[in-house]
Amino acid sequence: MLQTIFILVLGSLAAFGCTSANPPFAGAPANRLTPAPTIKADINSMMDKWQTVVYANRRPSADVVFYGLADWRDAIAQAKSSGTKQVSLIFVFDGPALVLTLNDTAFNRVMGTTTGNPWKSLVDDLQKSGADTEVCGNRMKELGVGNADLLPAVKVDNDGWLRVMELQSKGYTLFQT
To answer: Can you list the positions of beta strands (E) in 46-131?
Structure first.
C-alpha cells in the first residue's frame, strides 16, 4: 500500500516536471526558460563609494567558505561594473576562520591534515578582485603561527576586532560571518 502511494506521488510529480535531480540554483538549471524573461529593475543601486569590512571568525565549512568568498568576489565585480568609483572591501580573518589564510605547511600543522589549504585559491581570487585580507595577530599567537605561515599578501593586524572597530569608525559597513 505504502509503495503504491509512493509510486503514484512520484508519477504525479514526474508528470508535472517536479522531479529534477538538482535543487534550484545547484549548478546550471536543467529547465532554464529560453529565452530568458525580460527584467526591468525598479531600483538601480548606485554608489560612489563602497566600504565594507567582513569579520570572518567562524569555523570554516566547505560550502560556507566557497559561497561566501565567491559571493564577495562577485560583489566587488558588480559594484565596479555598476559605476562605483571607490570600492574597498577588507576581510579580517580571526578565530577559527584564520586557518583560511595559512599556507599549505602551516594549514597541515594546525589542522592535523596532509591535504594543504583547500581554500587558498579562493582567498587568492578574492585578493585579485581587489579585496584586502588581514588576520588577527593575537589569534596567530594562540595558534602558534607567524607571518611566514600566511598566504601571500595577507596582512597582520595587532587585534582583529579592534581593526574592525577602527574601520567602522571610518565609515565601513560591517558584515560578520
So the answer is: 49-56, 86-93
